[in-house]
Amino acid sequence: MHPTLLQDVLWISGPALQLVVAIMIIHRRLLKQIPIFWSYTVFHVLLAIGSYAASRVSYRTYFYVYWGAEIVDMVLILLVIQELFSHVFAMCGAIRSLGQILFRSAALMMIVFSVLLARTGHSSASTTPLVDRLISLERSVNVLEIGVLFVLFLACRILGIVWQRFAFGIAVGMGLTLSGEAIAAALRTFLGTAANQLYVWLEPMPCVLATGVWAYYAVSVDRKAEFSSSSPSPTQLAEWDRALEHFVWRS
Amino acid sequence: MTTVFVLLLALAFILFLAALMRRRRLESDPVGLHRQLQPVHLPALLNLLNPEDLSFLRTNLRQSDFVKLKRQRTRALIEYVRRIASNAKVLASIGALYRHSALPEVAAAGQLLLSRAFMTRVLALRTLLCLQIELMLPLFDTNLGSTIKAYEAARGRLEGISSASLVLR
């Protein structure tokens, strides 16, 4: 397959899957629960169309659309993570406010860390210092967001909070996007313009992978409803009762 | 150096995500969850917490012997509370599995179990922290009353699920 064709497939599959996710969110009536994630998804679909149109105008137009959107994207991802914090901790009644406190503390810590990282990290000699700076910024923000997301996963693990299926899918997909983009940006920063071609390939891949994860969770979220609608079999219940009684008596 | 750090961080995070997904699959299996429950002998734990025994030992033993004994007692308590915390986490997962049941009684019992187990987990973690302090400073006393009460309440919710399912049978 010719590389440009594969690039086209990569370029189209991401927004196409995101369109599926956005439609599924509306279809499953999840929009009220995750409005920011939905906005993020729709933003990416519109961005794909906008980028395509900009690329037809001129490289300069495309450049500004791309990097302008990247900055909006960084902010949106942080908002999606905040939404995940609120969503996950909303189920915990008594410590609901802990989610926001935890998010703010983690974000603050990671901002300091990312600023330090941006100051210490320098790219190789390049003919495009603006791009280098933007990629360096992207890398630092990715590290920040990975850190905040890690705190969310860790807090859930420690406190024993049970994730809802789709929220878990969103978080995993977001983690994949951020990690992949951080790897791409780190390599581009380190290797300079020599890695441009590699960057062009690496950058959209995690996004497509993550969108695949979201699409899977968005489509299969109905399975949970299936699970809910079918009552456990009597044998299963009896087994359950025995196990519970056994536990109660042993305690 | 920074690049290597970012690369390692991102790769480690991907591995972490893979481990989480694997673990989540295990947690959605009720049989596997039951196997994770550990026995907690509450009468023995309450016996260990008897304040009269402790004050008797405090007055009749030398300070150094008392401290040594109290550390042993704290270690035993840590093991108990660790099991309570671990069980609370398992109970929360069990509650979450049944929370979405179409049968209202089972769903309500599942929801109650989930919230009780969650509170028990939080209390147990707080108690564990206090016990770790007690291990370092043996004269510090930890109150386990609220944790045990919460655990008993969560256990009661398990019975709630049992009875709900019995009614439905």
Description:
The complex is a heterodimer of chains A (251) and B (169). Chain A has 251 residues and is mainly α. Chain A has one domain: Rhopdopsin 7-helix transmembrane proteins (Up-down Bundle). Helices cover 85% and strands 0% of the residues of chain A. Chain A has helices spanning 3-27, 35-57, 59-90, 96-120, 129-159, 165-191, 196-202, 204-229, 234-250. With 169 residues, chain B is mostly helical. Chain B has 2 domains: 1-29; 37-168. Helices cover 85% and strands 0% of the residues of chain B. In chain B, helix 5 packs antiparallel against helix 6 (104-136). The longest helix of chain B is centred in the middle third of the chain and has 37 residues, at 63-99. Chain B starts with a helix and ends with a helix. Chains A and B meet through helix 5, helix 6, helix 8 and helix 9 of A and helix 1, helix 2, helix 5, helix 6 and helix 7 of B.
Topology:
The complex is a heterodimer of chains A (251) and B (169).
Chain A: H1 3-27, H2 35-57, H3 59-90, H4 96-120, H5 129-159, H6 165-191, H7 196-202, H8 204-229, H9 234-250
Helix pairs in contact in A: 1-2, 1-8, 2-3, 3-4, 3-5, 3-6, 4-5, 5-6, 6-7, 6-8
Chain B: H1 2-27, H2 30-36, H3 42-48, H4 51-60, H5 63-99, H6 104-136, H7 145-168
Shape of chain B: flat
| Rg estimate of chain B, integer Å | 21 Å
The description of the largest β-sheet of chain B is: none
Number of domains of chain A: 1
Unreliable segments of chain A (pLDDT under 50, ≥5 consecutive)? Answer: 225-251
N to C succession of SSEs of chain B: HHHHHHH
Low-confidence stretches of chain B: none
What structural class do helix, strand and pairing data of chain B support? mainly alpha
CA-to-CA gap between the ends of chain A?
A: 63 Å
Distinct helical segment count of chain A: 9
The largest β sheet of chain A comes out as: none
Strand content of chain B: under 5%
What is the number of strand segments of chain A?
0
Structural class of chain A: mainly alpha
Which second-level CATH architecture of chain A applies? Answer: Up-down Bundle
Give the percentage of residues in beta strands of chain A: under 5%
